[in-house]
UniProtKB/TrEMBL annotation:
Entry keyword set: Electron transport, Iron, Iron-sulfur, Metal-binding, Transport
Xref: Pfam families: Fer4_9
Keyword field contains Membrane: no
PANTHER family referenced in this protein's UniProt entry, alphabetically: FERREDOXIN-LIKE, FERREDOXIN-LIKE PROTEIN YDIT
GO molecular function annotations of the record: iron ion binding; iron-sulfur cluster binding
Domain of life assignment: Bacteria
Organism: Geotalea uraniireducens (strain Rf4)
Protein's UniProt keywords contain RNA-binding: no
Domain spans labelled 4Fe-4S ferredoxin-type: 18-49, 51-80
Protein name from the UniProt record: 4Fe-4S ferredoxin, iron-sulfur binding domain protein
């Protein structure tokens, strides 16, 4: 199974309160923006034209890859979603 097929077996209960909060000002000074290449859900988008990072938590797989690869500590908050919210994997 590849990463794109996981979404066929995944559902989300979206919380209005994001479980990940990013300080986008820190992202401007990042030299590699590893989160844009390593996030399997493609939640991070860098706009070269606007010089801004956009993060959308709605499709986050909660894998923690972004937290591990961010060498600038750009997160003001990284936690798992509140109980009852977030991703639900259905592998049956």
């Amino acid at each position: 199974m590849n990463i794109d097929e996981i979404f066929d077996f995944t559902s989300f209960t979206i919380d209005r309160e994001p479980h990940i909060v990013l300080d986008t000002a820190v992202c401007v000074g990042c030299d590699n923006r590893g989160c844009t290449n390593s996030c399997p859900a493609r939640c991070y988008t860098w706009s070269e034209e606007e010089q801004i990072m956009t993060f959308v938590h709605d499709g986050c797989l909660e894998c923690g890859t972004c937290y591990v690869v961010c060498h600038k500590n750009a997160f003001t908050r990284w936690r798992y979603p509140r109980g009852g919210f977030g991703v639900a994997y259905r592998m049956t």
